[in-house]
Amino acid sequence: MSLPESTTVLIVGAGPTGLAAALSLIHHGVRDFVIVDTVLQGQNTSRALVIHAATLEALNTIGCADELNDLGLKEENANIRSRYSKIFRVDFNSLNKYTNYAHALILPQPITERVLEDKLQSLGGRVYRPHTVSGLSRNKQDSTITDVVFQDGQIIKAKYVIGADGARSAIRNIAGIRFADPDGEDVSKSNLLSQIVLADVTFADESGVPDAGLNMITDSAGFFLFIRYSKSFVSMLPEYEGKQIIDNVLVDKFGPVSSGGAPPLKIEQVIWSTRFRTHSAIADRFFTRLGAPSDVDLNENSGEKEGGVILLVGDAAHIHSPAGGQGMNLGLRDAVALGDAIHSHINASQSSSSPSPSLAPHPDIILQTFAASRRARALEVIALTKSLLSVLGMKWGQYMRWCPVTLGSVRDCLLWIAGRVGWIRGMAAWRMSGLGMR
């Protein structure tokens, strides 16, 4: 498919984050954009399944929340359990004083992508597929424009390039932006689970499945997460003896123990599975100009500001463990905020280039402020997911010194006590919902 020769905004990546960025641009009146993706069509696997309240609120501002909310399952609670009984309940219903979305919305990622892409098409937009970026360079006639080169030899000239192309972002890598754990940690050398398995599965008999849609089952060797959607389930498990595909050995070792005469859980079909590393990383910069030094002073009108705008959102900007279902949510909120930032930057740039420019600050400060704000939110989410992983996924099978009790048992006991306090249940929901990290 032939690409346009030029555009104001080029969005690279048409997953949920890229699509939401396009919709946010349209909402703010920016229609001169192109969105491309490297695959011919979106994947039909669940991956991200939970949309939290803060994300639904953000999507609502660009007219995209209602259809998603109608299609998904609304869970008012998430349970932390041992293999035998409930321990702690995250009470999303307690958020009804602060949001119209006092629930966790269970909706597989392919449905989210379809809804967003259908919305984009209804507004006159389209996704160009398949196109893979292979290079970035400054345009020779105008250094504030980026020539984006694709593997098939086509070139798009763009004033703004948005990298929404995932954890292995070509835009981030070609722009030379560092991507590393903010704490400098090596999870493979820590006590945390270094890898987990994620899968879509169905069970032969559902009578032994926990009753709620969201269940995190703790164990001395890790945790097992059920997220129920219709007759399909997504299960998250610690990697066990090198296994990458979920099977009944894993379910027998980490899954819930049936009660009341229910038969043991048996997997009927593994629809899809993959292995995730639980490491975290964040880009040093979410905004830069191609070729500009990282310490440029945007208050000075110097040649250092030259170079096309490069922006990172979603997994291209930050990654972390799937604990708490935060990844896609954070990316969607990045994308919604980006539309307003670009719209404001375009208007400010036009004003500053007028014959009688005002003494207003440099327009790039708008993008710098956006990037700093989103990076701060990402650091908060990374800290949250590390805390969740340390509680749910630590290898706590060893016994306490001088006491025949495992650390895992102590953890479960403390969670059970905390779960008796409504304020703590509500605070857990507040943190997981993203309402405090918008």
TrEMBL record:
Stretches assigned to coiled coil: none
PANTHER family on file: BINDING MONOOXYGENASE, PUTATIVE (JCVI)-RELATED (PTHR43004:SF19), TRK SYSTEM POTASSIUM UPTAKE PROTEIN (PTHR43004)
Name under which the protein is recorded: FAD-binding domain-containing protein
Superkingdom of the source species: Eukaryota
Protein's UniProt keywords contain Protein biosynthesis: no
Cofactors demanded by this protein: FAD
UniProt KW keywords: FAD, Flavoprotein, Oxidoreductase
Gene3D superfamilies per record: 3.30.70.2450, FAD/NAD(P)-binding domain
InterPro entries documented for this protein: FAD-bd, FAD/NAD-bd_sf, RIFMO-like
GO molecular function per UniProt: FAD binding; oxidoreductase activity, acting on paired donors, with incorporation or reduction of molecular oxygen, NAD(P)H as one donor, and incorporation of one atom of oxygen
UniProt keyword Membrane, yes or no: no
Domain FAD-binding: 7-347
Source organism of the structure: Serpula lacrymans var. lacrymans (strain S7.3)
